[in-house]
């Protein structure tokens, strides 16, 4: 059974339909990558799933519940953005624990959760620093840590590596893959980068103009692209 199910999802801004009938079933623990050229609707689709935008049509089901009209805060999803959006005046520990503190979680439990997330992300020695005392890669790991401590049902990543330089991008990509292996959490990851898509995904969803062109494992897309667009985008030799 699908853990996260998208049925007939559409989104219009004014009278422009940017998401045009998306049907997709995601299994628990899957690493799904939305890939496609700039402007094809990847971020919008992720924001619809996160509840940061209202759908114009369609149904979203998560773990057997209809979440289509639930506010973002009730959906039990955590989103990591491309800009880290850390609180500059707070320490790494405070940044990672902020949401739990707001939710009035017991301080001892908060400390335990943050310590465990910091260990996974190699941030244990940086908990007392502020964001400006960290490298770009470390900041992005803090942003990921903020998501981990909430133990969400689904992780949503929107181009999390695009502000990093090439070397850090590769390294952080490997860390995200490791994180998924360790936590086994259902993940939707948005990128316009074919290499990221093909190396991280269990299944890749290729988007074009707000529609799905093909869904498949990286190998399936590579071996049997559904059409010229997918073949070119994935980089299959012609
Ligand atoms: P991607 O993330 O794939 O680059 P987006 O989801 O950001 O694409 O955008 C898809 C389309 O929707 C683009 O044409 C974009 O201009 C448009 N769009 C996105 N957000 C809004 C908005 N809030 N208002 C109007 N148009 C938007
Ligand atoms: Mg985008």
Automatic annotation (TrEMBL):
Record domain ABC transporter: where: 4-234
Keyword ATP-binding applies: yes
Keywords tagged on the record: ATP-binding, Cell membrane, Membrane, Nucleotide-binding, Transport
GO molecular function: ABC-type maltose transporter activity; ATP binding; ATP hydrolysis activity
Cell membrane among keywords: yes
Lineage: superkingdom: Bacteria
A GO term from the CC aspect: maltose transport complex
Protein name: ABC transporter ATP-binding protein
Organism annotation: Rhodoferax saidenbachensis
Location of this fragment in the whole protein: 1 to 238 of 353
